[in-house]
Amino acid sequence: MIELPFAPxxxxxxxxxxxPVRGLVAYAHGGSFEGGSRRDRLAAHLPDLFLPRGIGFxxxxxxxxxxxEFTDTNQADVAATAMARSAEFYPEIRPGLFGPYxxxxxxxxxxxxxxxxxxxxxxxxxxxxxxTMGFSAGGLAAMGVAYGLDGLPTVPHPPAGAVAISAxxxxxxxxxxxxxxxxxxTARGDAVFPRAAAAxxxxxxxxxxxxxxxxxxxxxxxxxxxxxLTDGRRPCGTRWGTxxxxxxxACLLYTSDA
Length: 258
Description:
Structural class: alpha/beta
Number of helices: 7
Mean pLDDT: 90
Shape: globular
Low-confidence stretches: none
Number of strands: 8
Radius of gyration: 17 Å
Helix content: 25-40%
Strand content: 15-25%
């Protein structure tokens, strides 16, 4: 594992396969934008899934807490309007999850990706397709990086796809055809991102013909998908771990064929 600084006080951990790098999964941890660690349970487990398939893995840190203002955009009014629009679309979810902390995390996620493209750790990373992934708050950020946020400029190198674990697209109106593919995995009893909110997002994206699939673990609460994805009692992995690999592979395959 290689530890790389990419912004003041922020670092990422990069794990690379022994052979050629077919692609990279960039992961952001959860914690409601208030806590958490880039070395969480998922980050410790996922390299074992991806590296044997030639897929690199990076786990990033991002700013936590901070000032509750839109300081990372020169269009603060646009971002504030988007936050209100998200809160209206998802009345079951705490509005603060769509606000300034999300915008800061997305900006930090972008900085981490820029660092990876410029890193001398692997010459192929500058051209390797990237899939953004995150858990909970990190899942919001992963979707925000892939599909953009109102008030933030577009990026020249968008990800090849996005995966949100125990999260939802924060601004679903930005996720419409054409766009990169994505996957959302939640749990039936999730109280942070309730199934009614996930179902509403799934219906809206289906109507927009967006290539984003939604799956739900039919039991458990907010952290249940982590347990399903990291269940070490089954040598062949779980159904959800297999599906995660399939989704990541599909994003990379589509990019290589495009």
